[in-house]
Amino acid sequence: MIKRVYLVGNPNVGKSVVFSRLTGVEVIASNYPGTTVEFTKGYLNLEAQKLEVIDLPGIYSLEPTSKAEEVAVKLLNELPKDESIIINILDATNLERNLFLTLQLIEEGFCVVICLNMCDDAKHRGIDIDIKKLEALLGVPVISTCAVTGLGIKTLIERLKEAKPLALSEKLTHQKRWQKIGEIVESVQHLSHRHHTLRETLEDLSVRPLSGFFISSIIIYLSFKLVRFLGEGLIGKVFDPFFFKIYKVFLVNLSSALGQRGFLHHILIGELIKGEIDFRESLGLLTTAPYVEFAMVLPYVLAFYLVLGILEDIGFLPRFALLLDNLLHRLGLHGYAIIPVLLGFGCNVPGILATRILESKRERFITSTLISIGIPCVALQAMIFGVLGRFGGFYVSGVYLVLFSLWLILGLILNAFLKGYSPELLIEIPPYRFPPLSVILKKLYIRIKGFLFEALPVVFLGVLFVNILLYFGGFDFFTGLFSGLVKGLFGLPKEAVIALAVGFLRKDVAVGMLVPLNLTVKQLFISVCLLAISFPCIATFIVLWKELGFKGVLKATLIMLLVAIVTGVLLNLSLP
Amino acid sequence: MKRLSLVDLKEKQRAKVVEILGGVGLKQRLLSLGIYPGRELTKISGFALRGPVTIKVGRTTLALGYGMAQKILVEII
Fold first, then answer.
1. Which residues 327-366 in chain A show a CB within 8 A of chain B?
2. Of A224, A410, A543, B26, which has the fewest Cβ atoms less than 10 A away?
């Protein structure tokens, strides 16, 4: 009796896209090996039977090399073979390499159905595969699909029931297996000769040192510009007009109705600044909380994830990793560690999860620690722009400069003092692909939905909680306790203690709370740096714990506190 | 026939893998990606200052760290 369907295949063949097509579950898919680092489950209805479908991280063979691969292989080794179907997904543009895993799976006696994906791309590249012949040679059903458009998925589902284990006499040695693959490919694949396309020329140029550096610089520069442009555009043209022209009218009425004072007014509207509602400084549940999240942070989150999504889907990230391999080696990492770091710029949580694509525990510790200390998430960055931006770009760049220096210094130190060595880079560089806009927008939608679901409850409950404590003076004891410390070490007023503590909940709100304190630029700069470096927000902290274990997270936290204090003191002493 | 490592191979040169130095783990990893003695490949580029090397094996473009590339010995064909 079949109960479960597993999606297995090499990294970056489109397993997650097939998964979405089969189950309707929304998952993030990109064009680089290692997008999926966890299992994702969904359901598929097959002739009135509900099958569980599981999307696994990509593997090249049944011998794992990274943490993500390890979990996938472990699961395959343990699953009951008579209850499971394996949909082995292959990239039709790279049949030869993909068949290695396929043969291993068949030899192991799994019920395999082959989904030959990216058939459209193969056709473009002049690759013609004889499906019938491949089916005959392998002895299992082969269905050609194009998962991005949905072509062939229906046939794939219909033919699932044809899957059955083959009675194979022997397991091949690896060399023999490659030999067999060579013969299969020879007889089923027909290549038509064509001229190098523009795309292939670009693919080649981007992995050469000089041209690659040039192309990457342009792409990174344009990405920054685009994020700024879109972020500011959304704030100026959409969100600010809505808040100031429409929403504020409602709030002014509410404020009068509440009599402009009292407990409820304090909680909902906050303090009136010069007799008026000030979205940045009032700190109310209906004023500053939604303004910070929707008009200051969300526009940048939208812009960032749109641009990141495009970069991911085109296949730019592994090429960028190649260029940074040298630099990252000095920090005990290799080039591919840049992918978790880049994801960390969106939100530290997926960034730290993505460290599973790295091979060793040591690399995962270094990368996770560096992400949680030196990489500000997009929400925090949006607030840095929003709050420090009015004092000029100098201060904003200053924060990045401080963080980047820390990142390098800390990386060098960790690399020098941690036991072990860093493994070498070994990655597949995917071809450039140009997915339809709908695919990119779909991914953006998934991420924005995720952001809102996770951020909003914390923001509103956090502001509510802080407001109640402020009203009843609940912070006085707490601020009193630490006031000497923050004043002496960092030159900050005692009220800043509250903002720094709130940073543990959410960084964006914490920066927002600094605004009404009327800090000097220097104080503001130091507080923002401290917030960026010190405790990661609670969500990141939990993931760190999960990924590094108790000892690991303790170590990372101590490093973090030390770095924060040292940096704060140094900045306080050195800045005019 | 002269043997040299991937590092010393020039750009766009085609070569055949003759030996992989290094442990079982490395051999296993390379093998699952289709790099094994007898296999033909083309070098695409090499980055300066002991940077990574990129090669094309079949239809796969791979990037390998410098140290790893040193361990793959090839013959020019």
1. 329, 334-335
2. A224
**Looking at the structure, do residues A186 and A309 belong to the same domain, yes or no?**
no
- Name residue A67's amino acid: K
Nearest CA to A525 out of A395, A407, A397, A420 is that of A395
Domain-located, residue A206: no
Contact at CB, A325 and B62, closer than 8 angstroms = no
- Residue A116, pLDDT > 90, answer yes
Which range of residues forms the domain containing residue A558? 211-574
Is residue A288 in a domain? yes
pLDDT for res A169: 61
Which residue from B31, B48, B58 is facing A96, i.e. has the nearest CB?
B58
State the amino acid at position A400 in one-letter form.
Answer: Y
When scoring B20, B60, B68, B71 by the number of chain A Cβ atoms within 10 A, the one with the most, hence best to mutate, is: B60
| A232 in the same domain as A139 | no
Residue A101: its chain B contacts at CB < 8 A?
32
**Looking at chain B, which residue has its C-alpha nearest residue A430?**
B61
Contact criterion met (CB < 8 Å) for A207 and B61? yes
Helix extents (H) in A84-161: 95-107, 119-124, 131-138, 153-158
Domain match, A232 and A185 both: no
Chain B touched by A178 (CB under 8 Å):
yes
By CB neighbour count within 10 A (0-12 exposed, 13-18 middle, 19+ buried), where does A301 fall? Answer: buried
| Dihedral (Cα; A344, A347, A349, A352), 10-degree rounding | 0
In terms of domains, do A431 and A389 share one? yes
Question: Is residue A151 helix, strand or coil?
Answer: strand
Is the domain of A398 the same as that of A250?
A: yes
Q: Determine whether the interchain pair B47/A63 forms a contact, defined as Cβ–Cβ distance below 8 Å.
A: no
Domain count, chain A: 2
Co-location of A456 and A533 in the same domain: yes
pLDDT tens for A224-281 read: 999 999 999 999 999 999 999 999 999 999 999 998 888 999 999 988 888 889 998 8
Residues of chain A with pLDDT > 90, as a percent, come to 61
Both A184 and A275 in a single domain? no
Residue A281's pLDDT is what? 86
Look up the CATH architecture of domain B3-76.
Roll (2.30)
Looking at residue A31, which CATH number applies to its domain? 3.40.50.300
Is residue A197 situated within a structural domain? no
Whether A395 and A458 share a structural domain: yes
Q: Is the dihedral of CA B42, B47, B48, B51 positive or negative?
A: negative
Residue A35 has pLDDT above 90, yes or no: no
- Measured between CB atoms, does A128 come within 8 Å of chain B? no
Asked if residue A196 belongs to a domain, the reply is no
At residue A562, what are phi and psi to the nearest 5 degrees?
Answer: -60, -50
